[in-house]
Amino acid sequence: MKKFNKNSIANVFVLSLVFALVGPIAALAAGPAAVNLGTAGNFVILSKTGISATGSTSIAGDIGVSPATSGYITGFGLTLAPGGLYSTSPLVAGKVYASDYANPTPVNLTMAVIDMQNAYADAAGRINPTATELGAGNIGGLTLAPGLYRWSAGVIIPTNVILSGSASDVWIFQIAQNLTTSSATNVILMGGARASNVYWQVAGQTTLEQTLFLMEIY
Q1: What share of the chain is helix, strand, coil (3-state, %, to 5)?
Q2: Among 19, 43, 73, 193, which residue has the fewest nearby CB atoms (within 10 Å)?
């Protein structure tokens, strides 16, 4: 679903309007409605089974696993913090949480995982996609407008892909199998697009090979 920092695309309508109104004007967001992540939104990576890092890895934000324990967070060189609520890692600019850490961490993780599952079900259940099977699953080199995109198989990103839209626009990617990126590729946000409005609902495995995922450019 969402985020390795540790485990898209269609018709655009442009209206040019002149308003002569006394009251405020509300700008409508493009794309589908946002997905409510709940407390899962506190994590850049949240997994039920484990998180592994190999090679060059850098994660900005908190990561967590539950019901898996800290032993299923591998390749990070974890150091348990005083009090045992979380660990730190030289690869993570944030905190690392696991279900076997001191209270209230297990309770917080349980709620976050429930919120994650609800958000996943919401994203997976969205209908009326903007595009289906775009690029036959290869979206490298594309510039994608806000929308709902669906693939019945996996998606690969072998070269940079751009998500272009405003700060209120939303992208949801429904991927029935794996999501895989090639080394030294970037998912670039342009025009004010925000990473918090991009949702990846991935049914299979997510593999990010030295990818700068969701890099904002203004």
Answers
A1: 15, 30, 55
A2: 19
